[in-house]
Amino acid sequence: GAVVSQHPSWVICKSGTSVKIECRSLDFQATTMFWYRQFPKQSLMLMATSNEGSKATYEQGVEKDKFLINHASLTLSTLTVTSAHPEDSSFYICSARERESGELFFGEGSRLTVL
Amino acid sequence: GQNIDQPTEMTATEGAIVQINCTYQTSGFNGLFWYQQHAGEAPTFLSYNVLDGLEEKGRFSSFLSRSKGYSYLLLKELQMKDSASYLCAVLDSNYQLIWGAGTKLIIKP
Which residues lie across from B3 on neighbouring strands? Predict the structure, then answer.
């Protein structure tokens, strides 16, 4: 099946720094990519939807200046957590919808720990 | 509003069969997904139903009834590694995924 690669898998950073997480569709073109956040023992929470070449659509309550999303190509979307704080520590997961089939594939997730 | 309901937790015995139900009320319907998620990992795709009926894939089967807004995931010959959360998600008319809260499945020896 199609593969979505997410990098880095683990990241530890100091409070106040910015962290970038990449999401790549390796063998297919993704018209839409989704970014989720998941707290322990809780379900996925959709943060934003990004379409290639246009601005991301953020869910209510998600700060767009805090979580910068760029979807520059049909195979790459990035999430930048700016001025990270300990409360931003979480599991961030991306998914990509395949252009032709419409099927959705998930990345492996990125665990962010802000000290 | 849009709503996906599935049980919070279920327990089953190794080797047995378990059915996880999912009911939904969404603005439009473009398919229903089932994902498996082990703790600390990203979800993995299990099934996608867009037409009524049963889709079988090895030990896992998924059923859909669009008129009833209902789906179930059937797991046969349960193994300990099947202990995980099972997420039901519906693609609405805007092709946005609406997620259920997930069902935690506990398998006992």
Answer: B25
The partner residue sitting opposite A43, judged by closest CB among B33, B42, B87, is B87
* A43-94 pLDDT per residue, tens: 778 899 998 878 899 998 999 999 999 988 889 999 999 999 999 999 899 9
Helices (H) and strands (E) in chain A, counts: 0, 11
Contact A1 B45 (CB under 8 A): yes
Interface test with A, best of B97, B99, B103 (most A CBs within 10 A): B97
Structure tokens at B14: 């190794």
**A105 contact residues in B (CB cutoff 8 A):** 45
Look-up of token digits 């950073």:
A13
pLDDT at B86 over 80: yes
Band (A15; pLDDT cuts 50, 70, 90): very high
- Nearest-CA neighbor of A88 among A68, A51, A113? A113
Whether B90 contacts B26, CB under 8 Å = yes
φ, ψ (nearest 5 deg) of residue A87: -70, -10
Kindly list the residues of chain A whose beta carbon comes within 8 Å of any beta carbon in chain B: 1, 6, 32, 34, 43-44, 46, 49, 91, 93, 97, 102-109, 111
Query: B40, B87 in Cβ contact below 8 A?
Result: no
